[in-house]
Amino acid sequence: MAAISLALIKQVREDTGAGMMAVKAALTEADGDVQKAKDILREKGVQAAGKREGRKAQEGLVAYKVVEENGKQVGYAVELNAETDFVAETPQFVQYGNEIVEAMVAAKATTAEEILAAKTAQGTVADTITEAGALFKEHVKLGQFARIEGERVDVYAHKKSAEFPPSTVAMVATDEKAAEVAHDVNLQISAMAPKWLTEEDVPQDVIDHETEVETNKFREQGKPEKIIPNIVKGAIKAFFKDTVLVDQAFVKDPKVTVGQLVEKTGGKLEQFVRIEVGKGEEEAAEESSEE
């Protein structure tokens, strides 16, 4: 059997775009024959990945892990997308998701570039994704991702049904005192999908846009010009109640806000994140249409 050198593997990878492990296996099967290895990769669908790129991949899973780093708890979460639920629920796809989040943790990655370059058994996360696409013959891609940290990090993972992996993951970072209500806060985040932690976190351009929309709406309704500013203030307050976590009515007791719930503990919320499969693309499309 011919020796499979790194140079040979690199050559085939550059020519095909296939992952390291897939290339090595093909070269081994082809006894070092480059052209035959390329044919094997084509037969197995590895080189078809480029043709799948244009297809929508809005199903999938969210993998997550909480670790200790420098005396704090750090939560990592990453979305791995495929085209169908059928693929998303397979044990192998779940394993790919777990491998990617483990690589993300090991690399302490916080950007898409860092995640894709993180090391895995297949070479890198990018290689793992390529291999997954070849195995399932679907467009598989990296979706949303997040990293948060605090004294404590709590996670709530929601599944569509028992046989499926998590499709929505909520994570909240708190201090020690607020940790006692972290689970309830995560249920709130999962159910009500807030966008910001506090009103101060809402970008000014978002507030300006909402103000303009509401002002134009009330003008169209024929409201007197002098009272429109006050009506708009009320509308912006309602917008905050819908989108700001601490301003939202607590789902288990609407008489109090999430902020008031946390205040009773004497603690505070530090960060939160919510990742729902497929929503990243939907939000990007909405933003694009608004522009």
Automatic annotation (TrEMBL):
Cited InterPro entries: EF-Ts_dimer_sf (IPR036402), Transl_elong_EFTs/EF1B (IPR001816), Transl_elong_EFTs/EF1B_dimer (IPR014039), UBA-like_sf (IPR009060)
Pfam families referenced in this protein's UniProt entry, alphabetically: EF_TS (PF00889)
Segments passing through the bilayer: none
CDD domains, alphabetized: UBA_EF-Ts
Function (record text): Associates with the EF-Tu.GDP complex and induces the exchange of GDP to GTP. It remains bound to the aminoacyl-tRNA.EF-Tu.GTP complex up to the GTP hydrolysis stage on the ribosome.
Ranges of residues in domain Translation elongation factor EFTs/EF1B dimerisation: 76-279
Key words, A-Z: Cytoplasm, Elongation factor, Protein biosynthesis
GO terms under cellular component: cytoplasm
Name of the protein in question: Elongation factor Ts
GO molecular function, one term: translation elongation factor activity
Keyword Transmembrane: no
Localization per record: Cytoplasm
Segments of this protein annotated with the region Involved in Mg(2+) ion dislocation from EF-Tu: 84-87
Record flagged with keyword Cell inner membrane: no
Family from the record: Belongs to the EF-Ts family.
